[in-house]
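Thread: Newbie trying to understand structure tokens

Hi all, I'm a second-year student working on a class project, and my supervisor (Dr. K.) asked me to get a predicted structure for one chain before our next meeting. I've only ever worked with sequences, so writing a 3D structure as a token string is new to me. If someone could post the tokens and maybe explain what I'm looking at, I'd be very grateful. Here's the chain:
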Amino acid sequence: MTANYHDQLSLRKSQLTDALFQKFSVLVYEKAGIYLKPEKKELLNARLGKRLRALGIESFSDYYNYVVHDTSGDELVQMIDVVSTNFTSFFRENAHFEFMVDHALPALVSRPGGKKEVVIWSAASSSGEEPYTIALVTEDFFEQQPGWGYRILATDISTRVLAHAQRGVYTLDRMIKVPKNYLKKYFQRGQGRASGHVRVKEALRQRISFERFNLMDDFPWNGSLDIIFCRNVMIYFNRETQQQLVNKFYRALAPGGYLFIGHSESISSLKHNFTPVASTVYQKNG
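---
Reply by user tm_fold:
Sure, no problem. This is what the structure looks like when written as tokens:
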């Protein structure tokens, strides 16, 4: 009976209760702006359970206290990594890249003024497929624009996916949507133990700066960005956070700059000064 009692006690301690789920939900929302719906409880239970086992912590209550009292903030980063969803692919929602090459970049290049550089931000870069896709098409475009250059800033809240992105190594099955001419021109095929993998060539990797950044933080860019990609991210935020983000994106863009959001997203119900110019593409007036 004693053993059975301890087994039941251990089981209760290892389960995420509704009260603790609510506490974690509040913490995740306050720190990352991500709204965890009640139906995400089992997912959180499974994902955080792995962190408990890795740290040798017995209960979710103890883990919660560990996170909030970790003055280094390292475990908070680990927790956000665990709850973040990081699905992505090369040339995902390709109509955006076609619009960028056919309309956005030509318009930016034709702007009056002395600036000869386009600055692009991939605001939720995940494991790197989005910013590298941006780099592929932008590099090709600017080869035909002597005297012009570009920079890409790629950020994510997850240090885990950023590390993957910085390496720039992908399995061949991830390259299905990449045109063969890009694959040949901008990627190196792995040999031996690296067979079945490709790596983005150094020259293209150098075009991208990967940094950890929390979209809930103040933006350091005030009218200095030309293009922002923030796709399939705002669906995880509530309306209030979405409104704050859209306002910050607007301020961060230079006049005439572009915002790309995911095809499953919309800002039509939010207050903003953007002009829609294509499906889920918006431009800052001026």
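A couple of things are worth pointing out once you decode it. Strands lie at 117-122, 149-156, 169-171, 187-189, 197-200, 208-212, 225-230, 253-261, 274-278, 281-284. The chain is about 45% helix and 20% strand. Feel free to ask follow-ups in this thread.
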